[in-house]
Structure formats: C-alpha cells, structure tokens
Amino acid sequence: METTNQLELNITTAATFEDDDIKQTIIEYGNNFKALEQYVKNATNSINELDDNLLYKVGHILWNKTPASGSFVGWIVTREGIHAKQWLANKKYNVGNLVKPPIDNGGLYECVVEGQSSTTPPVFLNTLNQEFYDVAGATWRSEFNYEVGDLTFPINGGKLYYYICETAGYSSTTEPVWSSVQNDTAFIDGTVVWRKAKNIIWKKVGTNCEFRPFGKIE
Fold this sequence. Notes:
- The protein is built from 1 helix and 20 strands.
- The protein has one helix at 22-41; strands at 2-3, 10-11, 43-44, 55-56, 61-64, 72-79, 81-82, 92-93, 98-99, 107-113, 115-116, 131-133, 145-146, 151-152, 161-167, 169-170, 186-189, 192-198, 201-207, 210-216.
- A hairpin with a 7-residue loop joins strand 5 (61-64) and strand 6 (72-79).
C-alpha cells in the first residue's frame, strides 16, 4: 500500500495492487474512514481553545464551530510546529508551560524557571536552547519618584526576583534588604510600596505552528 502525503492514509494503487493483502486492505480503508471523519469534524470556536503541546502539520484544517457574517470558515496551518498560547503579561507560569511571542517570530518557548511575567513582553531570543529572563529593568535608586507599575532590581544585579511598584512614592535613602522579603509579598520602601515577584526564565525549544483564517464569510 502507499501512504498519502497530507493525511497519511494507506491506500491501494495500481503499483501496489498485486502485493496488497485483501484483509489488511479492508482494515486500512476502515482506518481511513475514521481519519477522514475526525478530519471533517475537527472544529473549534477559537485557536486559543486548543490544547498546548500538540503538533500540527502544514495543511491541517480546523473548522469554525460558530461561523457568522464577517468571520471565517476555518483555519489552516501554514507553518508546521507545536501549538502554544501567546505570552501574557502579569501571569504566573510554571515549569514546562509553553508560549509563543506576541509578535510571532516562529519560536516556541518553554518556562524552565517558574515565576510571574512582566508588564511588557521580553525580547524573545531566537537561538535554540538559549535561556533568558522574562523581566528586565533598572536597578533600585534612592530617593527616586516611582510610579505604579515600575519595576526594579537590587543594586547587586541579581535577577532571580524583581519588584513591582504597587503604590507610587519616593524610595528610601537606603536600599531595602530585599532578601528578607518573601515572594509575592508587599513591603514599604520610603513611601513606595513594592511587591516581590519571581523572574521567569524561558528558553527556545522549537517552532510554533501558525494558523491562518480562510474563507471569509460576507
């Protein structure tokens, strides 16, 4: 039997007819019908509903469960890869979680050290297996006017934890003892209120798949 390129169905052709076993041929055609049924029924309301860590090959189609005027008939894979949801700000990620960058560069990234993402996306490095921190920013400054949402790091350059300004104000004349603060705990520095957060470490582990909508419904 020969195998088709897209759905990998096993079929009998003129070239294989003499050698194909009748019983096995019938079984394979039954398997083909199951695969075709799954292919036709493969539908979703949104690409974001898909489970992560599934491989999708070029040409794979997902039908739109809720087609409407102005929407699309479905989505088709134009780049083979693993599905992952887009990186989100201020989100806790665990080891093994997968993401793709908000500005797609084709990369698939895995969380290798758990933590909380920044308020803005990191620079997603495009070198395979190269690790990098999610959060980057300036080191702490004394008697500085901090605004809500500002991020800072200890003067010693440590990047394992970072600090988010929750209440605006002026920092103290002396640097806080950062190590004395528990993770995800708020504390006062002058008139600033900081919250400690763990910095995520990401690494590129492969390629994310790309779905493109097709068949716009007028």
